[in-house]
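Standup notes
- DV: blocked on the single-chain target, sequence here:
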Amino acid sequence: MSVCELFHTRYVGLMTAQTTAVPGPVSRAEETRQRFVDAAVTLFREHGYGATSMSQVAAAAGASRANLYLYFHSKPEIVLEWMPTLRPELDQIYLELDTLGDHSPSSCRAWLDRLVALWRVHPTELDAVEQATSEDSDVHRHRVELCRRTADGFHTVHRTREGSPLPPDVRATRRAHLVVLILSTERCISSIVLHDAVPEEEAFLDALAHQWSGFLTN
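- DV (later): unblocked, structure below
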């Protein structure tokens, strides 16, 4: 089974909130809601999250501000709606790390370079997530929950290196550690890619690589 196929199997199994039924026709309200999200994402890419106003989102969607507020009351609410669409691409990168046979610091560092490259492909989208996370507690909670789902996809959270199931308390501890590691990794990469705030980029990534290696080989 390829990495992509394995990712699909694990990720779909974890997304328990999603129904397996064939979706019916999209309602007019759903179409309008999606139009606002699409307009906002386009503006975030063109002008940045901070420079985009709700009035601009409404105008770009061809609607009034009052109509927009029937669906979303703030930019963080729009990001909350849109954020899960970004997560699968990130999760696939994390799953690649979990399935690597070599978790040495050098191997983890090469993997981190691929994660940084993904952030460089989607800088404005991920910047919107970072800013919305800092502004809104609901976005923050949802992001943490998405990271928990990512952690649940890791083989090393549930089993020993030999394949034996871990006790529930050990699984819970490892899951919590992994969520913290994911969040700290993404925060660090955000500083590197979005804000150019880490002049010691190589040293920071090396330190992260050692943290990942230590977790995965423990």
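- Follow-up: Residues 1-22 have pLDDT under 50 and may be disordered.
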